[in-house]
């Protein structure tokens, strides 16, 4: 699924994660959003010397925090909103040593039992706001 030119993009991270794991979670979710959501990344730009700088996100990306239960509920709610792009990140992924191990471990756990540590959402402002309005900024 590719969402075209979203108005809003947010990352929600488990507030109980150590800072390094929280930053890693946000980075991983951001990479996936950048790959799958058209219009998130701006064009390359040149500085006064003519040096080209790769395009960065054209949207602000607030990082919010929640607990594990709230993240699980968010995944389920967001999946039911067709106009938003949702990517989740689980402790299962975070603790797998290889992608093959991740695939194998995920096949053994149902959606409702997954230990979510982060969720990324991109799409139109109103549905995104409705989904994440109760989450606080990660500080």
UniProtKB/TrEMBL annotation:
A Pfam family name for this chain? DUF2000
| Signal peptide boundaries | none
Concerning Gene3D superfamilies, the annotation shows: Bit1
Q: Which domain of life is it from?
A: Bacteria
What is the designated name of this protein?
DUF2000 domain-containing protein
| Organism of provenance | Saccharothrix syringae (Nocardiopsis syringae)
